[in-house]
Amino acid sequence: xxxxxxxxxxxxxxxxxxxxxxxxxxxxxxxxxxxxxxxxxxxxxxxxxxxxxxxxxxxxxxxxxxxxxxxxxxxxxxxxxxxxxxxxxxxxxxxxxxxxxxxxxxxxxxxxxxxxxxxxxxxxxxxxxxxxxxxxxxxxxxxxxxxxxxxxxxxxxxxxxxxxxxxxxxxxxxxxxxxxxxxxxxxxxxxxxxxxxxxxxxxxxxxxxxxxxxxxxxxxx
Length: 221
What we know:
The chain has about 220 residues and is an alpha/beta fold. The strands form 3 sheets. Strands 3-4-7 form a 3-stranded parallel β-sheet, with helices on one face. Strands 1-2 form a two-stranded parallel ribbon. A two-stranded parallel ribbon has the order 5-6. The longest helix is centred in the first third of the chain and has 18 residues.
């Protein structure tokens, strides 16, 4: 389970700490026995803790949430801050919307280049933390969009815009092959299965129409 964006405060305050901790405790108690739950993700992309790198109190808050969650549920993996600025946790997760497969292949070829990567200008680890051998996953990647003429929504955007379904499939396959070749990447999460409102990074449209043949997607996967 990942914290939904609506549960994050606009700023870090004692009141935010109190409310978040209470709501998180309720969420864990509610869902702890759900068989589909694989890992707890406390924070996404430093939402609610925007000054994590500079503020020891914000890092202490994330560390405390991690310890509490492990105490409540010692059976599952816990991610401290998905995407970047990890303070610890059981997985090293990265959000990387690089569109060039060759860049991805080079970046994830060795741990030094991954640690040096700064997604959205943020360090992968917060001050005082470092990689301790935990498995690495690229938990947001892809973001491939077809040219605007193919979209039904007035407002639209993607991380990498391509001109044709052929280009989309080739880039998709290239990204998967690049990360599969890495000795470090243990898993990935592609963004995203379908278009959602202005986000047109889907492999299917918002009407669930495939942008490329499903058989070709299956072969790429």
